[in-house]
Structures are given as C-alpha cells and as structure tokens.
Design brief:
The chain is mainly alpha-helical and about 675 residues long. It folds into 2 domains: about 170 residues, Serine Threonine Protein Phosphatase 5, Tetratricopeptide repeat, CATH 1.25.40; about 425 residues, no CATH class. It is about 60% helix and about 0% strand. The strands form 2 sheets. A two-stranded antiparallel sheet has the order 1-2. It has a two-stranded antiparallel sheet with strand order 3-4. A hairpin with a 2-residue loop joins strand 1 and strand 2. Helix 17 packs parallel to helix 23. It is globular, with a radius of gyration of 28 Å.
C-alpha cells in the first residue's frame, strides 16, 4: 500500500502543475477546471482515507488547498478585481462572475464538511462527533463494541487533518465575503460563519496559533486594530505559534501609526484610551520585536505615555465606559507583550511592560475596593453579598481573574531574578492589592462556590494562552487535555451571580497562593491578609545579568502543580499548590496543531460574557455552601498613613508574649528587608 500511495502522491504533484498551467489559459469557471478540481479532490480524499500517515508525511491537505482551491480562488479574485471598476456599466457580467465564484466556494465547503465526516467515521474518531454535529452533517459512527481501537497517533493525525479542514472552511467563508462586488464591511453578519469555523478549530486544538491569526485578519477587515492586535498576540502566545504572526502584527502596527484607525461602533466610547494604548504598544513593539533594526526611541518617549494611559484607563473605569471585552483584551495584550519581549531579551521593554501591568492591576483593584468599602459601610456585609456588585465591578472581576492567574503562576520566578526582585517588592501595587483583598475577603467570607468543575466562558476563550498556564488550577488546568465534547459539557451553565462568586473564589485562591511565595510583601495568616511594608532599590542592569534572567525565566518547567487525578477543593485553600515556572516562555515549535471556542457568535466581542450588560437578579437556586475566606474580617486592617498591617489583639490569647503569627510576620519582614543584600 505504501508503494501505491507514493505513486499516487507523485501523480498528484504532477497533476497540480498541469492544473496551474490550465488556470493560466482558461477562466476559473471553465468546465475543464471544474473537472480537474473534482478529480483532484476525490484522489486526495481517497489517499487520506486509505493511509493517513503517508498522506500526512506528504502534506496532501496543504497540497489540495494551495494547488487547487486557493489557486482557483486567486484566479477568481483577479477576475473580480479586474471587472470591479466597470461593475456598474457591466452588471450582467459582474453578476454572473460572482455567481460562479459563490458556486465554487459552496462546492469546496461541501467537500470539506463531508471530508471531516468521512475521516472521522473511517478512523473511528468519536471525538469529532460534536464537530460533525455543528456542521450539520449526518454521520453514523460504528458501535464501540464492533470497532477496533485506534492508536493515539492515528487519532492525533485525524484531528489535525480535520482541524486544517475547519480552517479551510473559515477561509472559504472569508474569501466569499471579500471577493464580491457589493461588500458591506460594516455588517457584523458577513464574518460570522468564518469566525465560527475558526473558533471550532481553536477549541479542537487550543495550542495552535493558525486560527488565531485568521481571526486577527477578520478583525483587521472589520477595522478593529485592538482586536487584531489581541489575536495576533494570541497567535504568538501558544505552544505552536503561527510563524508569520509577529510580522503580521508589525504590519498592523505600522499601518496604525501611519494612518490611525476608524473604530467600530462598540469601541467609540473608549477611542481615546484605545488609541493611546495601541500607539504605546506599537512604539514599544518596534524596539523588541527583533524583526528589523529597532528605531531610535528614547526611554522617555516610551515612559511618558504611560502616565496618560493610566489616567485614561482610570477615567474609563470611573465613568463606567469600560467593558469586559476592553478590560480583558488589554490584559491579554499586556501579558502577551511581556512574554514576547522576554523571548526577545529586551530588558528595558520587559520592565516597562511589567510596570504598566502593575499600574493597571492597581487601578482595577482600587476601583473594586472603593465600591466594596462604600457599600459595606452603608448597607452591611450581608446586603452587599445579596445585592451584588455594580456593572463596572463585574466587568473588572473577569480581567482581575486573568491578572491574578498570571501573578500566581509567575511571581516566584520574577522574584528569583536579582535585577527585578527589589523593584517588584517595593511596588505600590502590593499595598493596594492587600487592602482590596482585605475588603473582598471580609465581605465574601462565606460566599457560595458552585461546582468547581465548571469552565467559565473566558476560560474557554483563553485555552492555550501560555502566559497564564502555570497559574491555572482545578478544571482550568485540565481543560487543555479535554476533548472537544468534554469542554462543551464543562462550560458553565450557572446563574450569572454564581459565576461572579466563582470568579471571586478563584481570585482569592490565587491571592493566597501568591502570598506563600518568599519575599511577597503580603502575609496570609488566620484567614487574613497582612501587608508588610518594605523599601528597596534595584541593582543596575547589565547584559550578563540579562542573559542570566532569560535563562532563569525561560527554563523548562518543573512537573506541574497539583495532580490531575486529585480533586481540587476551593475550601482547602491552605494546601494551594505553588507553581514554579514563568509560564508562556517555553521553546517555540512551528508544527501546525490546532485550537478553540464557539460560544460567541458575535464578531464584536472577544470575551463572551453572561453578566456584562444586564442587571442581575439574586439566584434562587439552592446550592452547596463552601467557605472561601476568613470567618472574621477584623483580624487585619490597613493603616492608610503608614501602609502597614495591624493585627487585632483580640484575636490572640494573651498580651504579654509574641504569638507565632507575629513571629512569622517579623521573620518575613526581615527577609524582605534583606532583599538587596542577598
């Protein structure tokens, strides 16, 4: 069979060259072209279904797409572009050409849909059944008892082949909208089919950047530079990044710096913030991307806009203009850029990005604390829990959960770097963070945690995102090893208020785990957060130390935290596992394995949210109650004048000796104070 397959592949290669010559002589709708397309499809499908290993080695999937389907599309594109200026004077000819093109696209889409079905049935890969159901293709899988087991290697190859087919389906949908005589680029519905195909591919294999790059292309066509930047950075920040995503991002930034952008309707209220944010990242990216010789941009030019960014972001929060989508998109871009700058060994850019991340986290935590404290003092703790948070705070919680996951997974490695430790430890963020945690834990001491085996929608959206990987726990840590069907079943069906409780539980869990790290200036004792004031300075930067830092932060991970077979209990926070690797910075490979989620059909929202823009009613469903914080909130207070933590003496038996807690606090203070000496 191997010999016959090799002969077939050789014949197909020759056939592809002849097809290319044919397209140069006749239009793409010629009957000879249609006949050769049909024959080539059947031959490739037959070869893949007969021996997928040999077909994969010969890259038949790509051969079919590039030499046949894309070649025909490109020929149609040239014909349409040539006729477009005269479309009004030659309407009949334009209408016929477009009809022929749409007919070809439909036939290609039908082929790929049925190919996925045939591939799954032939190799008995039941994991693809949910995909087939989404494609509305009738497929009957053989009973498990009568089918032979399929090797893991074959299953992986089948899934990869179907993943590429899903991307082809997305590309066909996109080309259908681009190559017409009457495009309405502002219509949200035009891109929806393509987006859904790409997101099916993303959820299928979360570690591949190809579909993310294609989503960035659609965002660019829609005129959203912010979403295009988000997806290009996402395409870089996965195990198998899309090879040209860094260059594509550079082109998008250059275009933005040269001509600005027209913002989609949903981004208009934040246009000033978005413009400032993108301009700063575009300038910074030029200095660390490594694609060309970096321009001469002074550190002052990069540092000065940060103050304006901080003001604009704070104003967006105060006025309630900030959306969940904007907060999370900004967070993911910041974390992706931080990771990418480290790979490029750009120490100054890394420090600027780290500083911006800490500033944005501080602003978000401050806004949340102000609301919690005000409502608690006016209405009492029980009333706050019952009535819930404001719309703005609910939006911020989703972003804070992303940041807290990143912090949990990376703070240990950051503090292990001599050149970063002192500056990080003395950052004002920690005082703000601790104060907000005290307020949050005092209100949500016995809040409701529902079924920790639920994935929130933002969890599915960020599957495969390396910068946060090591901070994940429980089901979020296991999600990337789940099948498509398991992910679908695990997506939260909770009441929006219960989802908020789950986010808060994760945030507090992350915070407690973070405080376990040596030199973090926050102590968690007796279910209370205590801030430990410190002052320190950073040693000067050197190239030798920069290389040492990169070696440390890019080191391969130790075995990950909790065992995947051990149930994780949010009630047992004291045993939260500490992660030990700066995530998202492992070596990059360029094998095309796939990625992700189809829960949002909107083209304007990256992060689907169930609680964003609606007034939530308290849930009436009876649920299990599990403690997620302290039972007493007066164990710790923050002195606004000194920034130090105060222990409530009534929580200790006796006043003439130092309790163990005080001894531990002083020991940790001494450890932090000696940071510069170490």
């Amino acid at each position: 069979m191997a010999d016959s397959q090799s002969k077939l592949i050789t014949i197909l290669s020759v056939y592809g060259k002849k097809f290319s010559e044919l397209l140069n002589d006749v239009p793409p709708y010629h009957e000879n072209v249609s006949a050769m397309v049909s024959e080539f499809r059947q031959a490739v499908e037959k070869a893949i279904l007969a021996d997928i290993e040999t077909a994969a080695e010969s890259d038949l999937d790509n051969m079919l797409w590039m030499k046949i389907h894309y070649a025909v599309i490109d020929s149609y594109r040239k014909q349409i572009s040539k006729l477009r200026p005269q479309a009004k004077s030659r309407p009949t000819e334009a209408r016929k050409l477009e009809a022929q093109f749409v007919k070809f696209v439909k036939s290609a889409m039908h082929f790929y849909s049925t190919f996925i079905q045939q591939c799954a049935i032939t190799y008995k890969v039941v994991e693809l059944k949910p995909i087939i159901n989404r494609l509305r293709v009738n497929a009957k899988f053989p009973r498990a008892a009568s089918s032979q087991p399929v090797s893991a290697k074959i299953t992986k190859l089948v899934i990869q082949s179907c993943h590429r087919s899903l991307i082809c389906l997305g590309d066909l949908s996109r080309y259908r909208e681009v190559n017409t005589f009457h495009n309405d680029e502002n219509s949200e519905k035009l891109w929806r089919p393509a987006i859904n195909f790409y997101k099916l591919a993303l959820q299928l294999i979360p570690s591949n950047g190809f579909p993310l790059n294609q989503l960035a292309v659609i965002a660019s066509l829609e005129g959203s530079v912010l979403r295009a930047t988000y997806y290009f950075f996402r395409a870089i920040s996965v195990e198998s990044p899309f090879p040209t995503a860094p260059a594509n991002l550079e082109l998008a930034f250059k275009k933005f710096l040269k001509s600005g952008t027209q913002y989609p309707k949903e981004e208009m209220p934040l246009s000033e913030l978005i413009a400032c944010f993108l301009r700063w990242h575009a300038m910074l990216y030029q200095t660390y991307s490594g694609l060309h010789k970096p321009p001469e941009i002074s550190e002052l030019e990069l540092s000065a806009p940060m103050g304006q960014l901080e003001i604009l972001f704070q104003e967006a929060i105060k006025t309630g203009k900030v959306t969940t989508d904007a907060v999370n998109t900004i967070a993911v871009i910041n974390l992706s850029a931080l990771s990418f700058s480290l790979r490029r060994k750009s120490f100054n850019c890394f420090k600027l990005l780290l500083s911006l991340i800490f500033k944005f986290m501080s602003l978000m935590w401050t806004a949340l604390e102000v609301e919690l404290k005000s409502k608690r003092e006016r209405f009492g703790t029980a009333e706050v829990r019952e009535n819930g948070l404001s719309l703005t705070s609910r939006r911020l919680l989703v972003g804070l959960r992303i940041y807290s996951t990143w912090l949990r997974g990376n703070i240990s490695e950051l503090l292990a770097v001599d050149e970063l430790r002192s500056e990080i430890v003395s950052d004002p963020f920690w005082k703000v963070y601790c104060s907000a945690l005290v307020e949050l834990s005092s209100i949500y001491t016995s809040t409701v945690v529902i079924d920790s085996d639920s994935l929130l929608k933002e969890d599915v959206e960020l599957l495969g995102f390396l910068p946060c990987r090591r901070g994940l726990s429980s089901i979020r840590q296991r999600a990337e090893q789940m099948t498509f069907d398991e992910i679908e079943e695990s997506v939260s069906k909770l009441h929006p208020n219960s989802e908020i409780d789950l986010r808060i539980a994760d945030i507090l869990d992350d915070a407690i785990s973070t405080t376990r790290v040596d030199k973090v200036p926050i102590l968690y004792e007796n279910q209370s957060f205590i801030f430990l004031a410190t002052q320190s300075t950073s040693p000067p930067h050197s190239d030798v130390m920069m290389n040492a830092m990169v070696d440390l932060l890019l080191d391969e991970p130790d075995p990950p935290g909790p065992s995947l077979t051990t149930p994780y209990s949010k009630a047992n926070w004291g045993s939260a596992t500490q992660y030990s690797t700066f995530s998202g910075l492992s070596s990059i490979s360029y094998d095309n394995s796939p990625s992700f989620n189809l829960h949002s059909t909107s083209t304007t929202s990256i992060f689907p949210s169930s609680a964003d823009d609606e007034v939530l009613e308290p849930t009436t469903k009876k649920i299990d109650q599990r403690p997620i914080g302290s039972q007493k909130s007066n164990a710790t207070t923050i002195d606004n004048a000194t920034g130090t933590g105060k222990l409530n003496p009534f929580n200790f038996a006796g006043s003439f000796f130092q309790p163990p807690q005080v001894q531990r606090i002083r020991a940790k203070q001494a450890q932090i104070k000696n940071t510069d000496v170490e």
